[in-house]
Amino acid sequence: MEIGLHLPSAQPAASAEGILEVARAAERLEFDSLWMFDHLFTPTGIESKYPYSRDGDYPMTANDPFFDPLGLFGVLGAATERIKLGTSVLIAVYRNPIVLGKILATIENFAPGRIVLGVGAGWMQEEFDATGVPFEGRGARLVEYIAALRAIWSGRPASFDGKFYSWVEAGFLPTPTAPIPIIVGGHGDRALDRAAKHADGWAIVVGKGQGAGIDGAAARIEILRGHLDREARDPHDFH
């Protein structure tokens, strides 16, 4: 078992100093990993329903700082030496996969074997609208995005011709020094199916929302195990 903690990177009074203090203390105390949320902004009047609360209310406000996890990967990779760094989760489709793949491969070369990429389909339509990414079909887009990242990180010249992303054959060096695990978040049936088919693990939320809570998470794990069996995947190799 590995034990990690979420950084204070998205909350009232979040600060660079506080994030670094917690990260360095966690490494000193021999925690295994540090985790970060991802959102680009918080609307002052949000209409989207947050899936991990009973009433659909989002706990952040427009006055709360929300530090970017990709920037923190780079900062914390240099500020720490051993501890793993992960997102739980990054809404990857807000960024082009070539750009994200290049950023993470570069950082991983300076923090070998320490990056874990958790990704999710997303729920806040306001962010999709602002970044010009269609809200509809975001699950299928995420599946293709994962395949695109693996092509980018293959270490060989690669082309890609998908429904959402495409490019001519090109080299993307440097490749990560070790495979970057990709874990998928979301508690819906399609999210569990997506994780079993395409990911290296599942990011669980135990807040009192949709499919969550301790009992809810346990029930979701049993469903996930069924999906892993169907895909002939060893659950011991799934994070």
Secondary structure topology:
Elements: E1 4-6, H1 16-28, E2 33-36, H2 69-79, E3 84-87, H3 97-110, E4 115-119, H4 125-131, H5 138-152, E5 158-161, E6 166-170, E7 182-185, H6 189-198, E8 201-203, H7 213-230
Parallel strand pairs: 1-2, 2-3, 3-4, 4-7, 7-8
Antiparallel strand pairs: 5-6
Describe the structure.
There is one protein chain. With 239 residues, this protein is of the alpha/beta class. It has helices at residues 16-28, 69-79, 97-110, 125-131, 138-152, 189-198, 213-230, and strands spanning 4-6, 33-36, 84-87, 115-119, 158-161, 166-170, 182-185, 201-203. Strands 1-2-3-4-7-8 form a 6-stranded parallel beta sheet. A two-stranded antiparallel ribbon has the order 5-6. Helix 6 (189-198) links the parallel strand 7 (182-185) and strand 8. The mean pLDDT is 95.
Structural class based on helices, strands and sheet pairing: alpha/beta
Whole-Å distance between the termini? 11 Å
> Strand arrangement, largest sheet?
1-2-3-4-7-8
Quote the average pLDDT: 95
Q: Report Rg.
A: 18 Å
Share in helix: 25-40%
Low-confidence runs of at least 5 consecutive residues: none
Q: Total helix count?
A: 7
- Major sheet: 6 strands, parallel
Number of DSSP strands?
A: 8
Strand fraction band? 5-15%
Task: Assign an overall shape.
Answer: globular
Give the helices and strands as they follow along the chain: EHEHEHEHHEEEHEH
